[in-house]
Amino acid sequence: MFGAVAQVLDRGITCPAAVELARMEGEADTAIDAKVAELSAQLDQLLGGSPRLDPWDVVAGVYGRAWRMGLIDPTSAVWRMNSLWSQIRDLDESESDGLQIIWDGMQIKEQDDGSLSSEWIDRSAEELLARADELIPPDAIDRPLCESIREAMLANGY
Predict the structure, then answer these.
(1) Per residue in 98-130, pLDDT tens?
(2) Residues with Cβ < 8 Å from 154, sequence gap 6 or more?
(3) Region of residue 71 (left: phi > 0; alpha: psi -120 to 50; beta: else)
(4) Any residues with CB less than 8 A from the CB of 4 and at least 6 apart, and which?
(5) Which long-range contacts does 124-131 make (Cβ < 8 Å, 24+ apart)?
(6) What does the pLDDT look like over 25-66, one tens digit per residue?
(7) How far apart are CA 97 and CA 153, in angstroms?
């Protein structure tokens, strides 16, 4: 489940919380959330004054990157974005480009009801995912890391 964390560890990031998170299996959500918060604090110390990406830009960007790498088809990506509704329903979509892209993806998914051609759905989703891919730096996520993140997202229904 924490393959993405293992990829981070393989890259030499040695935050104690990352090691502990990578070893967690079957933990309660509250324990995982607490460990993720601890990891975030440790990474903040490690990154110092480096610029940060908006978390929703990263989420949307991972969908875009996974699509660009051929790990997910465009229609499946917008359907997966739709599963984020409960996490973002109370957030203002104008707060970040990533939130706007996720909301736009949900709108495309809602139009995938048979009334429009699958070509239109795919083309709209591809345009959206190309924008999403641009939210994260080109070298920020390579294929093995993207595969691990997608695997973790799929395991959790995203």
Answers:
(1) 999 999 999 999 998 888 888 999 999 999 999
(2) none
(3) alpha
(4) 145, 148, 149, 151, 152
(5) 125/74, 125/75, 125/77, 125/78, 126/67, 126/74, 128/78, 128/101, 128/104, 129/63, 129/64, 129/67, 129/68, 129/74, 129/77, 130/64, 130/68, 131/64, 131/97, 131/101
(6) 777 778 877 887 887 788 777 777 777 788 899 889 989 999
(7) 20
How would you classify residue 81: left for phi > 0, otherwise alpha for psi between -120 and 50, otherwise beta?
Answer: alpha
Backbone angles phi, psi at 129, to 5 degrees: -70, -30
Closest CA to 94 of 132, 62, 56, 52: 56
Report residue 156 as tokens: 């959790």
In the chain, how long is the greatest CA-to-CA distance?
51
pTM score of the predicted model: 0.72
Tokens of 4: 């993405």
